[in-house]
Write a structure and sequence with these properties.
single chain, mainly alpha
Length: about 200
């Protein structure tokens, strides 16, 4: 995406122009909290434990890598980029003895829907509108060089509005993350170095 000036809907009345990078950042603040329930909501953890996948990181790697199929650790180490290889190796491929990728996808979606249902309360109508907007925005999205985004884009669009909302947010989140990893790679910054840089930035 170039950094040309664009206009956000809420800036139309003022005529204010913002850069494409500002739009991307604003979008991230909107879709990241929707996606992140799969990691931090109690419902998400509970459904994986009920499915026999105990321990946060087993559920994390099973759920997030499930769109790739029953992969070994190597593709996940490459595509997740910032995780220590030994950490991934502890979860994969052994986790596929506990749950199949198809089951992991269904479990992850169930947990996300349960969490969003609680958090959004009586906003069902607004959630449906947002889900439909995300579906239109991500239809035909270019995932060239973006492995995790491409794998999620290939999944069927859920019928349930909250599941559809979470799916769209997840697709955009992985698309953004894949782009970050490409930028780090181009700059010669490996996964460990990127974490150190991030930690340093938080201290300043």
């Amino acid at each position: 995406m170039s950094d040309r000036d664009v206009r956000l809907p809420d800036a139309a009345q003022t005529g204010a122009a913002v850069s494409a990078s500002q739009v991307a950042r604003r979008m991230w603040t909107l879709f990241e909290p929707i996606h992140a329930v799969t990691y931090f909501a109690a419902e998400a953890r509970a459904v994986f434990e009920a499915a026999g996948v105990r321990g946060f990181w087993r559920g994390y790697f099973a759920g997030r890598s499930a769109p790739l199929g029953p992969v070994t650790a190597a593709p996940v180490i490459a595509s997740f980029y910032t995780f220590a290889p030994q950490m991934v190796n502890r979860a994969l491929p052994a986790v596929w003895e506990l749950i199949t990728p198809e089951q992991a996808l269904a479990t992850r979606e169930t947990g996300a829907v349960a969490a969003l249902s609680r958090l959004l309360g009586g906003l069902a109508e607004q959630a449906t509108v947002a889900a439909d907007m995300l579906a239109r925005a991500t239809r035909g999205i270019d995932c060239s060089g973006r492995v995790l985004a491409g794998a999620n884009a290939a999944l069927s669009l859920p019928a349930d509005p909250l599941a559809r909302l979470w799916h769209g947010a997840t697709l955009l989140r992985e698309h953004r993350g894949d782009g970050h990893f490409a930028a780090l790679l181009a700059a010669g910054i490996d996964g460990c170095e990127s974490i150190v840089l991030r930690a340093g930035k938080r201290r300043t």
